Amino acid sequence: MGNYLTSRITAEKHVHVKTLKNSKGRPDVKFHDLPEDVLCAILSKLPVKEAVRTSVLSTDWRCTWTACPRLSFGVNDVCKNVKMKHQHTQMFIDRVNAVLGKHCGRVVDQLEIKFIFESKLVDHLNNWIRFAMSTHAKNLAFDLAPPSNLLKYGDHYRFPFELLDNKSISCLACLQLSFVCFKPPPADFIGFPNLRKLDLHVVKTTRQDLESILCSCITLEWLSIVRCHLKDEMKVVLQPLSQLQYLKIMHCEVTKIEFDAANLSTFVYDGPYIPITLHHATKLENAKFWFRGAVFQRAATSLLNGLPDVQNLTLQLGMQRLEVFYIGTIFELWFSM
Fold this sequence. Notes:
Elements: H1 36-43, H2 48-53, E1 70-73, H3 85-102, E2 110-114, H4 122-134, E3 139-143, E4 157-158, H5 166-169, E5 174-181, E6 197-204, H6 207-215, E7 222-226, E8 232-236, E9 246-250, E10 254-260, E11 266-272, E12 276-279, E13 286-292, H7 296-306, E14 312-317, E15 320-327, E16 330-336
Parallel strand pairs: 1-2, 2-3, 3-5, 4-5, 5-6, 6-7, 7-9, 8-10, 9-11, 10-12, 11-13, 13-14
Antiparallel strand pairs: 14-15, 15-16
């Protein structure tokens, strides 16, 4: 997740830029002559706090930075001279609130928050989600994971499904969540009808809650689940993910993986050896596995039975690696150490 404001340049209509020439006969274009979209593109290369500072350049620049539709906040937006943790957190909260306040009533396509979670942030995180929903944001990313020693940080942030109204949630196309907790959604929760990308990292949930959420993502095309310890099966078969093309499951404590994804083309798995079945995955082109604690013959046989249509298979057991490339009914094997 980058620490930048980003603008999407539109080309719906031609914008005329003054083309006066200087003494050398070259176009003399001043910075303030540029179209707003071009100015926003330039500001998008700056961290949030630097982009905000451009508001003091002139009256014309006072609100230019607020036209950027993609907002991203991280630890770099806080002064490095602040030593106390509570002051560091409060400065981050104040900066985010100040920027979002300036964007009220404006279009915001993306909101990203990258900051180590603590209980003090809960109400503010909820308010920031309310803001994103009110602007009908298409992309929402909350990366709240600490850099290391995850266990000592205690509770995760509970993702507030109840704040997602039907109209706003229909606009959401990409959701990235790290160090959050899923509790059962409210009974009237309609799911994520237009979500295309879902990235879950260090998410605390149960098999039932995760299955319920995934089954509601009927248009999902890209799914990554990393370090989400269910200690149970991971199954999505009651409601097939017919649009899913990419699936990655890594470092998760699960006992079995079973998906129904007819358009799946890439599957990546890293973890202990477990049964894996991908139903109707006739378009599966690439599958990569890193198994730990598995016997080669057992793992290879199980995969070939569970993935009968895979074209390119990479299997790694400890230090031994096997690659299988299928060409029609012929396949070749490569071993490497």
